[in-house]
Amino acid sequence: MQSDYPLFPLPTTLLPYGKMPLQIFEQRYLKLVKQCMREGSTFGVIQLVKGSEVMKDGRRVPPIVAERGTVAQIVDWDQLPNGLLGITLQGQNTFTASNLRVAEDGLVLCDAEFESELTPSPLLDTWEGLAEVLESLETHPHVERLQLNVDYRDAWQVGYHLLQLLPLDESLKLSLLAPDSLERLMTTLDQELTQLSGE
């Protein structure tokens, strides 16, 4: 358990192994990013369920967020043409968040219980089609910029990279953010891709 673990609530879900570009403009997050880059530390990306923090009885009340999030490592950064700081996050292991509170600078903090990193699992023959879809997506210009580094022998990496990239409902992505559901992850991806190709 780690107390005072910083959170970055977002309407989107960061998945283990997945990469996500972000624009940073709020002072509290600029400060967090600088600290993480200086110290090599991480923060948690967690799905925002409702609203942002509000004032109640003269103090800030944290937003409503999902129970589980993903540890985020900053793997790249750049100044964007609009002058804002752009960073690329890579998802690591998952965690559960409790006892949310808001720091003086507005940063949302939690007590984080970290789950183990995923153990590599072989890509079964029945999942080869998912790997082929991911390989084809890697040639897309937007995806090329993310510079994915996928171990195609590991089903977890194939599944979560693909889930990160596909335009699927965020509630579905959140429901698959569990470290013991490889079969469910791959089966759901197969079903969703069948639906997408049929539209």
TrEMBL record:
GO terms for biological process: proteolysis. SMART domains: LON. It comes from the Bacteria. InterPro entries: Lon_prtase_N, Lon_prtase_N_sf, PUA-like_sf. Gene3D superfamilies: LON domain-like. Transmembrane segments: none annotated. Keywords: Hydrolase, Protease. Residues 1-197 form the Lon N-terminal domain. It holds the Pfam family LON_substr_bdg. GO terms for molecular function: peptidase activity. SUPFAM superfamilies: PUA domain-like. The keyword Hydrolase applies. PANTHER family: ATP-DEPENDENT PROTEASE LA (LON) DOMAIN PROTEIN. This is ATP-dependent protease La domain protein. It comes from Aequoribacter fuscus.
